[in-house]
Amino acid sequence: MVWHAHVTVATVVEKNGKFLMVQEHSEGNTVINQPAGHLEENETLIAAAERETLEETQWEVKVTHLLGTSLYKAPQNGITYFRVSYIAEALAYREDSPLDSDIDCALWLSKQDLLAKEKALRSPMVLRDIERYLAGDRFPLDIHRDFTAN
Q1: Residue 77, phi then psi, degrees to nearest 5
Q2: Quick one: 59 exposed, middle or buried, by C-beta within 10 A (0-12, 13-18, 19+)?
Q3: Structural domains of the chain in order of their starting residue, each with its CATH number
C-alpha cells in the first residue's frame, strides 16, 4: 500500500464576532469543526472549499484569502491530513440546499464558545485556524497556482 496524505480544505467564516462551524459525526463521536472536506478529482482547492461549506452549512460563501496550511495525523484513524484553510465571506443562506448526511447542524460560535467546547473539537486545527484568523493571518489567493483544473 502506498502512503499518501489526504488533501482537505476548510473555511473560516466570521460574522459579528462568531464563526460558522458544523456539528458532525466522526469516528462515532459528535464533534465541532469548521466547514471542511476532501478535495475531489478535477476540482480546484477554492471550489472545494466553497462547495464543502455549502454542503455542510447551507451557506453560500466566497473565498477571499488563504489562511494557511496544516499537516495533522489523526490519532483515531492514523490518517495524515494536509489541510488548506481559507477565509471566506458569507453571501447567502440557502435553506433549500441539503446538508451532508454526517452533519447535525451549522452553528455560529464565538472563540469563547469554542474554548468552552475544546474537548469536542474535531482536531487541534480547528482552534488553531481561529487563532490564526484573529491574529490577522491572510494571504492573497494567488499565492498558490492550480494547474489541474480543466
Answers
A1: -130, -5
A2: buried
A3: 6-141 (3.90.79.10)
Cβ–Cβ < 8 Å for 9, 45:
yes
Cell numbers placing 99? 446538508
Buried b / exposed e over 115-131, threshold 16 CB at 10 Å, is: eebeeebbbebbbbbbe
pTM: 0.93
* Adjacent-strand bridge partners of 38: 8
Mean pLDDT estimate for the chain: 93
* Separation between Cα atoms, residue 117 and residue 112, nearest integer Å: 9
CA 26 – CA 32 distance, rounded (Å):
10
Q: What gap in Å lies between CA 71 and CA 5, rounded to an integer?
A: 9
Summarize the confidence of residues 48-63 as an average pLDDT.
Answer: 98
Distance CA 91, CA 88 (A): 9
